[in-house]
Design goal:
Blueprint: H1 2-10, H2 22-31, H3 55-77, H4 95-102, H5 106-143, E1 150-153, H6 170-185, E2 197-200, E3 207-209, H7 214-230, H8 235-260
Antiparallel strand pairs: 1-2, 2-3
Helix pairs in contact: 3-5, 3-7, 3-8, 4-5, 5-7
């Protein structure tokens, strides 16, 4: 298997100019189906318990997760323009993906199939999230009940206001999150969850760090953005633009693979 992997690498243009004709070698390898009997070039980077490359997990890590992150970022920006950072789309190509893309093999066929179905799968995924947005946002709101009875403190940011704000009920907790998000939306980010902590009214030891709320705030932002999008008449147009951007990312990634093939 190691020899087959080395031969596969020599057949692609991964390291730039070489002393051999990589394109001619690749054509010959594909012409004679050199890797047809090797399901997935099993000495490469991600393997399952049986020692074979898991192309689906590889695709999830290197491509689907990026497209999902872009779509999620774009949806969030329809409601909170400064909360989410646009994901970076790198030109770097893993040699594993380049080999799979370049040769006729079961693994290569699976990688191409994953690319071909990516947009339709992501459309179904977002459609599902849009359907459950209201229910999931209610769940997130309810998780904020854990702050009831706590005071808001900060050692460096609130000054004399530290310890004065008491969270008496769920509405107070939600109001606190909304206040933070309004500041983020206005570009005023001098105080965040990492700068605060919560203590109960009658104790200075039973505390909660503000950054333990990060995942709850992330979920609140995502599902409230989805709910906001659901209520907009321009929803189809917005989603069409978002998925157009996702397609551009996919095409760029495929061009990067083609350049090495």
């Amino acid at each position: 298997p190691d020899v087959m992997l080395i031969i596969a690498i020599f057949g692609i243009n991964y390291y730039g100019e070489t002393s051999h004709n990589s394109h001619k070698l690749k054509r010959l390898l594909n012409k004679y189906n050199f890797f047809e009997g090797d399901p997935v070039l099993n000495t490469t980077l991600i393997t399952t318990s049986n020692g074979r490359l898991d192309v689906k997990n590889l695709f999830e890590r290197d491509y689907r997760s990026l497209v999902r992150e872009y779509i999620k970022h774009s949806i969030i920006c329809t409601r909170y323009k400064n909360y989410s950072e646009k994901p970076e789309v790198s030109d770097v190509v893993r040699i594993t993906n380049s080999i799979l893309w370049s040769y006729k093999s079961p693994g290569g066929d699976l990688l191409r199939a994953e690319f071909n179905s990516l947009i339709s799968n992501m459309e179904k995924e977002i459609e599902y999230y849009l359907e459950i947005a209201n229910k999931e946002l209610t769940k997130v709101d309810n998780t904020l009940n854990e702050l009831i009875g706590y005071k808001l403190f900060s050692d460096s940011k609130l000054g004399k206001r530290s310890g004065l704000y008491v969270i008496n009920d769920k509405e107070d907790a939600i109001s606190l999150v909304k206040h933070y998000l309004k500041r983020v939306d206005r570009g005023i980010c001098n105080i965040g969850p990492e700068h605060v902590y919560f203590n109960t009214i009658n104790s200075t030891y039973n505390g909660k760090l503000g950054n333990t709320l990060n995942s709850k705030i992330d979920n609140y932002v995502f599902y409230s953005a989805l709910l906001h999008l659901n209520n907009r008449a321009s929803k189809p147009i917005i989603l069409s633009k978002i998925f157009s951007g996702a397609r551009n990312i996919i095409e760029k990634k495929k061009r990067n693979l083609d350049n090495l093939a």
